[in-house]
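Action item from last week, closing it out:
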Amino acid sequence: MVPKVTKGKVLPKIKLAVVDDHALFRRGLVSLLAEMGDFIVCGEASNGKESLPLVESENPDIVLMDVNMPVMDGVQALEAIRELRKDQKVIMLTISQSDEDLVRAIAAGANGYLLKNAEPEELRNTILEVMRGNSVLAPEMTEKVFASLRRACIGQRQTILSDREVEVLNFMVKGLTTHQMAEALYISDNTVKTHIRHILEKLEVNNRAQAVDKARELGIL
């Protein structure tokens, strides 16, 4: 292959490794990448386990990795690759729109997550962006990331208060007095006051009304 020439400068092609268990898709992808002119495929593998020696021997700039594969799936392979080469760039190229697969891939350190129905130019741009040091996410998966973050934030907020403190907070919403709360919970007035003090401290507010408002804002109520 002839190296790409830009304004008198010869630019080295980006070395790619393709890892996918479907031979027809893999061969088609290799042909497509060759036609683009910016890339050279330095190796192929049919599962995650086979990708490990490939990465070590061929030293690709970027690995295009399927998620769901036999023997060792793409995310497991990504985790293993990170142990071999901490800075290895990996783009997950998959049909999976599963929240779980997406979150696992991001947590394992994927540099990109692209769906196999992407247009060739989108694939090309994703590879180039990752090569520049950026992370890329398929547009279809963006909302899933935000939804996952929202769920995580809500779960974190709900753990700010103990179960008993949430009970007291709900009584505060109903306007019960300290003594009424104590009777309902079969505890002393002083214990209720302690719970209220802890609630105000944890929510960083000064009174019961502010506590209720802040709890609603945080999604605790």
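Closing note: The chain has a mean pLDDT of 88.
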